[in-house]
Design goal:
This protein has about 180 residues and is α+β, with helices and mostly antiparallel strands. The chain has a single domain, classed as Inorganic pyrophosphatase (Inorganic Pyrophosphatase, Alpha-Beta Complex). It has three helices and nine strands; from the N terminus they run αββββββββαβα. The strands form two sheets. It has a five-stranded mixed barrel with strand order 1-4-5-8-6. A two-stranded antiparallel sheet has the order 2-3. Belongs to the PPase family. It comes from Hymenobacter ginkgonis. Homohexamer. GO terms for molecular function: inorganic diphosphate phosphatase activity; magnesium ion binding. InterPro entries: Pyrophosphatase, Pyrophosphatase_sf.
Length: about 180
């Protein structure tokens, strides 16, 4: 019997790369690091963050994408309500945070919930309150510090760079797994 896997069986969206599907693994405010179990398609608790920090936005992945770290492309989705685990959300892409995690590239697409009027007017990173990007940077630089693991946020880039990264992750997915459901 075939099973459903959110990574491979959910559409990545109809208006790529401007609007993508995000599948949320971790709600905003969580101290739990949840991630998709790639084999079963279920959500697993990877660890509880060993630090006095919590996720600054809903965090998940874009289905049918693949990156050099052997995972789907990560996404942070800003929304005025808490988005629960494994919820599918249409996300309007506004930029990308480029970082190194243990010396490995680990891009995070930054988006807003497309159907949330309190945030969907943001079109680029410069539209966000300045503290929000600092909060995201600080979280990702600090959340592994007590585990003695090094994470470095390199830079924030705009929509066009985010689109390029999304398209590259789609191409790598298709080269690695075939065309999928898209």
């Amino acid at each position: 019997m075939a099973h459903f896997n959110p990574w491979h069986d959910v559409s990545r969206g109809d208006s790529l790369p401007e609007v993508v599907t995000g599948i949320i693994e971790i709600p905003k405010g969580s101290k739990g690091k949840y991630e998709l179990d790639k084999d079963s398609g279920l959500l697993k608790l990877d660890r509880v963050l060993f630090s006095a920090v919590h996720y600054p936005a809903a965090y998940g992945f874009i289905p049918q994408t693949y990156c050099d770290d052997k995972d789907p492309l990560d996404i942070l989705v800003l929304c005025s309500v808490d988005i629960p685990h494994m919820c599918v959300v249409e996300a309007k892409v506004i930029g990308v945070m480029q970082m190194l995690d243990q010396d490995e590239e680990d891009d995070k697409i930054i988006a807003v919930a497309a159907h949330d009027v309190s945030v969907n007017h943001y079109n680029e990173l410069a539209d966000l309150p300045p503290y929000l990007m600092l909060e995201m940077q600080r979280f990702f630089e600090d959340y592994k510090a007590l585990e003695k693991k090094h994470v470095e946020v390199k830079q924030f880039l705009g929509r066009e760079d985010a689109y390029r990264i999304i398209n590259a992750s789609i191409k790598l997915y298709e080269e690695t797994f075939g065309n999928g459901a898209q």
